[in-house]
Design a protein that fits this description.
Keywords: Carbohydrate metabolism, Hydrolase, Magnesium, Metal-binding. By secondary structure, the protein is of the alpha/beta class. It is 42% helix and 9% strand. Bound molecules: 2-phosphoglycolic acid and magnesium ion. Magnesium ion binds next to loops.
């Protein structure tokens, strides 16, 4: 029997709802600069390209954009604010721990590919008691490239002991789907995250709840084992 396929997860908007904490840190920073706060809806559209872009977008949305010289110190200040916030178990989306436990129990190698800095992502997973599930973590600062480039996904697969047949990326945004596409692996979109309209993102499958994942993986497996697979991305 083929070994279970590796499953690579995005972090923000997929495993955890990071809007409250990112919002607290960003709005503290904006407040120091005399700016108005950003709303949760704005934040959702800012997340997914790492903290530097988040900070830049926060400033651009509330007044003058930061100059190139201002971005570094503003980012450092943002990360200071963010780092002191205690991880909130309530930020984990419903069913994530038990579903990860089920996948790990079935033998799926599990990895993380986020555009958050690697150390921050690792510490967060550790505090939330999710770290033991992950055999590899690649962050937005791990490589010269970040999602939507394929390199971070391929690095996760290598770190998990790949190459593998039938690897799967699970994420909430266009970067996740594009990175999977570029890496030639199957993509599953979670519809509850920050990525916008599922119809605009050409994922192989869409799930509405994290707990739908085992059934989705089964559907991927059946598809890839069929004589005429249509995953990834309508390949025939
Ligand atoms: O924008 C970020 O900081 C991270 O986003 P991601 O975990 O969805 O890649
Ligand atoms: Mg995300």
């Amino acid at each position: 029997m083929a070994r279970p396929a590796p499953v690579i997860f995005d972090l923000d908007g997929t495993l955890i709802d990071s809007v409250p904490h990112l919002g607290q840190a960003l709005n503290r920073l904006l407040g120091e600069w005399g700016r108005t706060s950003v709303t949760d809806a704005m934040l959702r559209s800012f997340i997914g390209d790492g903290p530097r872009r988040l900070v830049e977008r926060g400033f651009a949305a509330t007044g003058r954009a930061l100059s190139r010289e201002e971005v570094g110190p503003a980012l450092a200040r943002f990360l200071d604010f963010y780092a002191v916030l205690p991880a909130d178990p309530g930020s984990i989306y419903p069913g994530v721990p038990r579903t990860l436990a089920r996948l790990a129990g079935a033998g799926h190698p599990i990895g993380l590919c986020t555009n958050k800095p690697q150390a921050i992502a690792r510490d967060l997973l550790d505090e939330l008691e999710l770290l033991p599930f992950f055999g590899a973590i690649v962050g937005g600062d791990s490589l010269p490239q970040c999602k939507p480039a394929p390199e971070p996904l391929l690095a996760v697969l290598t770190a998990l002991g790949g190459p593998f047949a039938g690897a799967i990326m699970v994420g909430d945004g266009p970067n996740d789907i594009a990175a999977a596409h570029a890496a030639g692996i199957v993509s599953i979109l979670v519809s509850y995250g920050y990525g916008g309209e599922p119809a605009d993102l050409s994922a192989d499958l869409v799930i509405d709840r994290f707990t739908d994942l085992p059934d989705a993986l089964e559907a991927v497996h059946r598809n890839l084992a069929s004589p005429h697979p249509t995953f990834p991305f309508g390949r025939s």
